[in-house]
């Protein structure tokens, strides 16, 4: 069944977990306003799912963190 295929795909690293703006802000230890600014300037890619729902792929947030690491 297709659900089983999706589960197998996830086990192989093919699934994305999506975070809210608040969850992304918590992970980066910044405000939600900062996340909205990064989305607006294109630093973080987000997906709008309706007029008020925004989600950020966990992989995208990890990419942003890796790119903006401080030593």
How does this structure look, described?
The chain has 71 residues and is mainly α. The chain has four helices and three strands; from the N terminus they run αβααββα. Strands 1-3-2 form a three-stranded antiparallel beta sheet. β2 (47-48) and β3 (54-57) form a beta hairpin. α2 (21-28) packs across α3 (32-41). The radius of gyration is 14 Å and the shape is globular. The termini are far apart.
Write the layout of secondary structure elements.
Layout: H1 2-11, E1 18-19, H2 21-28, H3 32-41, E2 47-48, E3 54-57, H4 58-67
Antiparallel strand pairs: 1-3, 2-3
List keywords for this structure.
71 residues; mainly alpha; three-stranded antiparallel β-sheet; disordered N terminus
Distance between the termini: 47 Å
Strand content: 5-15%
* Count of β-strands: 3
Number of helices: 4
Helical proportion?
40-55%
What's the average pLDDT? 85
Strand order of the largest sheet: 1-3-2
Would you identify the regions where 5 or more consecutive residues have pLDDT less than 50?
1-7
Sheet with the most strands? 3 strands, antiparallel
Helix and strand string, N-terminal first?
Answer: HEHHEEH
Q: Based on helices, strands and strand pairing, what is the structural class? A: mainly alpha
Write down the overall geometry. Answer: globular
Task: Supply Rg.
Answer: 14 Å
């Amino acid at each position: 069944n297709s659900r089983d295929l999706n589960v197998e795909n996830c086990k192989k690293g093919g699934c994305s977990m999506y975070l809210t703006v608040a969850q992304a802000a918590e992970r980066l230890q910044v405000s939600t306003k900062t996340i909205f600014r990064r989305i607006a300037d294109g630093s973080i890619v987000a997906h709008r799912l309706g007029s008020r729902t925004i989600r950020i792929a966990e992989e995208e947030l990890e990419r942003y963190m890796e790119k903006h690491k401080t030593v």
